[in-house]
Amino acid sequence: MKDNIFMIHYLDEGWDWPDMYCAEDLEEYCLETLEVPHEHIDKVTYLNNAFELTLVRQRSYHNDDWYVNLQRTA
């Protein structure tokens, strides 16, 4: 099975690390910018100017555009 944990080191679309105050901000970034559907997000963890995104393990999304783009981003 493919990876379900992604490290994000760079933010896009006008977001910057000072914009990230809590886990909800990170999740909003995942939803809006990375286009990860809410039901596939297991957890997000802030790690000093990076964050770890853990997806719910499912094979069904491995060919979805947002997942392919996420693999390129991380």
Compile the SSE list and pairings.
Elements: E1 5-8, H1 23-32, E2 41-46, E3 51-55, H2 65-73
Antiparallel strand pairs: 1-3, 2-3
Explained architecture:
- A hairpin with a 4-residue loop joins strand 2 (41-46) and strand 3 (51-55).
- The model has no long low-confidence stretch (mean pLDDT 90).
- The two termini are 17 Å apart.
- This protein is an alpha+beta fold and 74 residues long.
- The protein has a 3-stranded antiparallel beta sheet, covered by helices on one side.
- The protein is globular, with a radius of gyration of 12 Å.
- It contains 2 helices and 3 strands.
- The chain has helices at 23-32, 65-73; strands at residues 5-8, 41-46, 51-55.
Features:
alpha+beta; three-stranded antiparallel sheet; 74 residues
Record the strand order, biggest sheet.
Answer: 1-3-2
Instruction: Tell me the number of strands.
Output: 3
- The backbone outline, from C-alpha atoms, is globular
β-strand percent reads: 15-25%
Please give the alpha-carbon distance between the first and last residues. Answer: 17 Å
Kindly state the percentage of residues in helix: 25-40%
- Alpha-beta content class: alpha+beta
What is the string of SSEs from the N terminus onward? EHEEH
- What Rg do the Cα atoms give? 12 Å
Summary, kept brief:
The protein has helices at 23-32, 65-73; strands spanning 5-8, 41-46, 51-55.
